[in-house]
Amino acid sequence: MPTLGCIADDYTGAADLANNLTRQGFRTTLILGLPSHSQVALDEVDAVVIALKSRTVSAPQAVHQSLAALRYLQELSCRRFYFKYCSTFDSTAHGNIGPVTDALVKALNAHGTILCPAFPDGGRTVYRGHLFVHDALLSESGMQHHPLTPMRDPNLVRVLQAQTPSRVGLLSYHHLQQGPTATREQLHALQSTGHQLVLCDTLDNDHLRTLALATRDDILITGGSGLALGLPAPAGDTSLTTSQLPRARGAQVVLAGSASRATHAQIEHARAFLPTLKLDAFELTSAYDRALQQVVQWARPYLGVTPILIYASGTPEEIHTVQEQLGREHSGALIEGALAQLAVRLTELGARQLIIAGGETSGAVTQALGVQVLRIGPEVSPGVPWTYSPKRALHLVLKSGNFGPVDLFTAAWELIA
Ligand SMILES: Nc1ncnc2c1ncn2[C@@H]1O[C@H](COP(=O)(O)OP(=O)(O)OP(=O)(O)O)[C@@H](O)[C@H]1O
Ligand SMILES: O=C(O)[C@@H](O)C(=O)CO
């Protein structure tokens, strides 16, 4: 039975965490959405990751979903819990990282917890409480233009403090550099002065290991997926940890709803190699069914012949125009819904290998496809694994918006061929 229970606030983030846990030696099952008990067999598993779509819903809804996931994991006999959010701390104005963390602390009767968004392998580090994406501050990394969770302040202590009545402290890299004992002492010192939530600096994977050791008796830890790379591997036979996925067959489709900088670059690169079609939000509003039908007609001759790319992402200016006229939530849901419908129709026509870019988009697409349990396969790049749905016989990549190399949409297929 699993001992580590994880709650992720979006689908790509959940795949990212499941990937890092798998690489770290945990036999990990990824569950999309909250299942009913009978649906999933979890005997030979060390960790379970539940993917929620709770990042951009209201704070009370996010808390409600997260507590339901916690209860499910407790009933599975999990003894430690990991709340996973984005390595760029993606939040709305009201949360949801603060409210969900507070609710989990309370439900678990914990004294408090750490917050460690960093993922150095993916270029995310935290220095003096400020988040960097490679060499850029968060607020200059492209994330300031995110369609749903624009991040305009790189100071995460300030960002988090605005989301919670709990007092937020900072664990500085100085303490991490002195090792697990000094780190643990500093965490206790911060907690004893009323800092329930402690945002952690992290410059490299050594800091992640130190932090994981310093908090190994804590019932709750929170962070990006990076922290998983610091966790000690569970004892026992881990030879089956990275499951060998079946060989992939069937048509190859990329569906990109992410408007993040890395996805933009991947789209630009793929346009030179793949048949590519851009969805138009205004056309979808005025004639939804006809617009989707046209996309399917366009795609049909390519299926099984070459991978294709269908995307929605526009420049920040284009997105601004769409959002001004159609509303932020409506336009996001419209495009997610269209990509989800296209996934359904294209799989009916033989698509079996899908790369889906964007967390919200991945949530919408996998829900429409009825995918619930995923096995983790080969890693395409840090945070981006191939996964496999045994029930639907589908190979899927759920790609986080800002992850992956520029040639991901053209090169990833080779890993499962
Ligand atoms: N041209 C556009 N105009 C308006 N909204 C768009 C446009 N293109 C995409 N969107 C919306 O932007 C949102 C992108 O969020 P999504 O979580 O899918 O990507 P992401 O944030 O880049 O990925 P991740 O969460 O993995 O980092 C979706 O709701 C999508 O529908
Ligand atoms: O942590 C990350 O950056 C990703 O796993 C993610 O959550 C993207 O939505």
From TrEMBL:
Q: Name one GO molecular function term.
A: ATP binding
The question of whether ATP-binding is a record keyword is answered with: yes
What top-level class of enzyme does the UniProt entry assign? transferase
Four-carbon acid sugar kinase N-terminal domain segment(s): 4-230
Keyword Nucleotide-binding assigned to the entry: answer is yes
List UniProt keywords, sorted A-Z. ATP-binding, Carbohydrate metabolism, Kinase, Nucleotide-binding, Transferase
The UniProt entry, under Pfam families, shows: NBD_C, SBD_N
Q: What are the Four-carbon acid sugar kinase nucleotide binding domain coordinates in residue numbering?
A: 253-409
Q: What does this protein do?
A: Catalyzes the ATP-dependent phosphorylation of 3-oxo-tetronate to 3-oxo-tetronate 4-phosphate.
Q: Which NCBIfam families did the record assign?
A: OxoTetrKin
Please state what the protein is called.
3-oxo-tetronate kinase
Q: Which organism is it from?
A: Deinococcus peraridilitoris (strain DSM 19664 / LMG 22246 / CIP 109416 / KR-200)
Taxonomic path: Bacteria, Thermotogati, Deinococcota, Deinococci, Deinococcales
